[in-house]
Amino acid sequence: MWFLVKATFWFSLVLVLLPFLDPSSSAKLENGPKVEIGDTFSAANEAFQYVSAICIQKPDVCEKGAETFVALGHRAREGARIAYEFLDSQFAETGTGTPDAKVMTGTVPAEDLSTVEPATEAMPVFKRTPVPEKRLDPKAAATK
């Protein structure tokens, strides 16, 4: 579970930072909400100190935190768009405007079997079966 929390944090951080690498996204984000680094760190510090009743004791911290999360959300959305466009440009099939009309079923007609090489020729031959070796007991190794 902790792995998922850490992975979500780092993935979100990457999405927030991607718009800094794309010059076209700066024009889109000019009119959006702004992030002040100093205000963000002070809001995070105060939120950590007053987690139990932060909105009752300091409503301005809740408002600044909400503004920060909205701004980071906009940046993350823009980062996701940049990542999508990058992946689409890298992995998109070029030169095909429409999908193929022919459906491939995975079967090979009988006349094509003569051109196919047997799969056993391409497989590597091992002289012995690879088996993982027994791990040492760390407690026993430390006493020696």
Rg value:
28 Å
The number of helical runs is 7
Question: What is the end-to-end distance?
Answer: 37 Å
Query: Which structural class matches the secondary elements?
Result: mainly alpha
Strand content: under 5%
Secondary-structure element pattern, one letter each: HHHHHHH
Largest sheet, described in full? none
**Overall spatial form:** flat
Low-confidence residue ranges: none
Helix content: 55-70%
How much is the average pLDDT? 75
Q: Work out the oligomeric state of the chains in this entry.
A: single chain
Number of strands: 0
Pfam families: DUF5330 (PF17264)
Organism: Rhizobium fredii
Protein name: DUF5330 domain-containing protein
InterPro entries: DUF5330 (IPR035220)
Structure in words:
This protein is mostly helical and 144 residues long. It has helices spanning 2-17, 23-29, 37-49, 54-57, 59-91, 119-122, 138-143. Among the domains are: 11-57, no CATH class; 59-95. The protein has seven helices and no strands. The longest helix is centred in the middle third of the chain and has 33 residues, at 59-91. It is flat and about 70 Å long. The mean pLDDT is 75. This is DUF5330 domain-containing protein. It comes from Rhizobium fredii. InterPro entries: DUF5330. Pfam families: DUF5330.
Features:
144 residues, mainly alpha, 58% helix, 0% strand, flat
Précis, in short:
This protein is an all-alpha fold and 144 residues long. It is built from seven helices and no strands. The protein has helices spanning 2-17, 23-29, 37-49, 54-57, 59-91, 119-122, 138-143.
